[in-house]
Amino acid sequence: MSGRELFSEERSAEVVAASFAGTPDPRLKQVMNSLVQHLHAFVKDVELTEEEWGSAIDFLTRTGHMSNEVRQEFILLSDVLGVSMLVETINHRTGGTSTESTVLGPFHMVESPVRELGADIALDGKGTPCLVSGQVTGPHGEPLAGASVDVWQTNEDGFYDVQQPGIQPEGNLRGMFRTDEQGSFWFRSVVPRYYPIPDDGPVGQLLAATGRHPNRPAHLHFIVAAPGYRPVTTHVFVADSPYLDSDAVFGVKESLVRPVPEVDDPARAAEAGLPNPFRTLTFDLSLLRADQAPPAASPAGAQPTVVRGVAAEAV
């Protein structure tokens, strides 16, 4: 047999990894070697049965069949396993010096309409009025004039406009703004609502089988960019929303939670162009310079970023 190592339970990972020895792309070789090592270790750890492996193949096949041009069930699977958030966090480390990122989400499907500062993005007039404002700065607090602020959110019923064509006006609760000379932005909206991720497919069945709910806490999406700075894709979460500690996709970070207090002030309401009373949400964002080196990974055991996950009792 020319002295080659043959497949065995004990040496399975080593034998398979050796088959990739001639891979010309060093990064692909590294990824495949690690994948094989971890995958084989998992199979040995749980002593996977043939029936279980067959069920896993069927689950992945159905996940692929569920995907189409407007729905990606594999991304949803990545989300509920926390992989999307982990990849996002690794690739957008801030070192505590800029606004933290979180997942893009599946509903940034259309270009947000360009709007003037102070515009009302709630086109149907429904929901609890809310004045959203903030400032975009660089890492040293320098205001970033002309920064783009792309926002989108759900309505009071927990739906995005693209989920309800013909029911919500096109472009409802979306807007593309530019900051003023002080890097400030403000617009009128409504308080968003928590909502469930799509749970009528294999991923929903997985959540049900494991006793997990499909809900996300209330939030507004932001993509903020300025020339010479690194853009950030993030959310701001409503502080009193349900599911902050059990977000189905693990997207909540402590630094992104904000109170949305009620303001009962007729004069201020009239100035903002909102009925009295109304709610307010303030969300300042800080960007890293494009030439800044990304912060290194934290030492083992260190936890500079607190991510709220699925609590054991919140199922």
Overall residue-averaged pLDDT value: 92
Which architecture of the largest domain would the CATH scheme give at its second level? Sandwich
Terminal residue distance: 54 Å
> Which residues form runs of ≥5 with pLDDT under 50?
300-305, 309-315
Secondary structure: helix percent: 10-25%
Helix and strand composition category: alpha/beta
State the CATH superfamily name of the largest domain. Aromatic compound dioxygenase
- Rg, Å, rounded: 23 Å
Q: Quaternary arrangement of the chains shown? A: single chain
| Number of distinct helices | 7
Walk me through this protein's architecture.
The protein is built from 7 helices and 12 strands. The protein has 315 residues and is of the alpha/beta class. The protein folds into 2 domains: 12-78, no CATH class; 95-286, Aromatic compound dioxygenase (Protocatechuate 3,4-Dioxygenase, subunit A, Sandwich), CATH 2.60.130. The strands form 3 sheets. Strands 1, 4, 10, 11 and 12 form a 5-stranded mixed β-sheet that branches. Strands 3-2-7-8-9 form a 5-stranded mixed β-sheet, with no helix packed on it. A two-stranded antiparallel ribbon has the order 5-6. Strand 7 (219-225) and strand 8 (232-238) form a beta hairpin. Helix 1 packs antiparallel against helix 2. The longest helix has 21 residues, at 26-46.
Q: What are its keywords?
A:
about 325 residues; alpha/beta; Protocatechuate 3,4-Dioxygenase, subunit A; five-stranded mixed β-sheet; 7 helices; about 20% strand
